[in-house]
Design a protein that fits this description.
The protein has 251 residues and is an alpha/beta fold. Helices cover 39% and strands 28% of the residues. It has ten helices and twelve strands. The strands form three sheets. The protein has a six-stranded mixed beta sheet with strand order 6-9-10-3-11-12, sandwiched between helices. A four-stranded antiparallel beta sheet has the order 2-1-4-5. It is globular. It binds adenosine-5'-diphosphate and magnesium ion (2 copies). One magnesium ion binds next to loops. Keywords: ATP-binding, Nucleotide-binding. It comes from Albidovulum marisflavi.
Length: 251
Amino acid sequence: MLEIKNLHVELEEEGKPILKGVNLTVEAGKVHAIMGPNGSGKSTLSYVLSGRDGYAVTEGGATLDGEELLEMEPEERAAAGLFLAFQYPVEIPGVGNMTFLRTAVNAQRKARGEEELSAGEFLKAVREKAKTLKIDAEMLKRPVNVGFSGGEKKRNEILQMAMLEPRMCILDETDSGLDVDAMKLVAEGVNALRDPSRAFLVITHYQRLLDHIKPDVVHIMADGRIVKTGGPELALEVEKNGYADIVAELA
Ligand code: ADP
Ligand code: MG
Ligand code: MG
């Protein structure tokens, strides 16, 4: 589904190379995890895939279902089924959560050439999904993320993901660290959305998230490359021994 080939990326302004030849294939129905030391380029990879400004691809590329991903506008990527979780953590005062969700869903449907959902259809869908994620109606009415707790923001992001029904979901946990409850919510949301036609790329510095989201494949990234690939046991090895052993082994 997602195929990244020899991807080289540098920071546009500084010309500093960050990704130095990433190769990765994620198949439909699978959960791949990327782990790695701080500064290895994990977040950069997710930003480049989502189309954030400021990065220059100098070699290689990436395809989603065979289509060149890196040439698409961010909206086109979303329409093609890509979702970067935690991409809307911003607070939007004055814009109701429901209105925001409906606009996002309908923009995506339009880009896919599908009919927009009526107010009634949308309401029905969002209520169903909110219920399974234990989000109460009151939270849907509030302005987007304003005054939401960390856990509520995470749940809201998972709701966005559930409503947009992406095929390829990328979650960058960031290194700020989620508390255990927020982490469990993310994991439950992901597990509920696991499907043979959908794939996940879960980026995490710590092993603990992978206790809750069982990955099929684990990759270790260091210095802008994927340096090791294995099964779930690789994550446990990292937890036990840290990254130093793996990085030293390679050097
Ligand atoms: P990770 O997510 O694995 O911790 P990042 O992708 O955030 O790694 O960062 C990789 C490297 O790129 C780091 O050395 C970081 O300092 C650098 N970097 C990333 N984005 C920027 C930026 N906008 N400006 C300056 N340096 C950056
Ligand atoms: Mg970091
Ligand atoms: Mg990061």
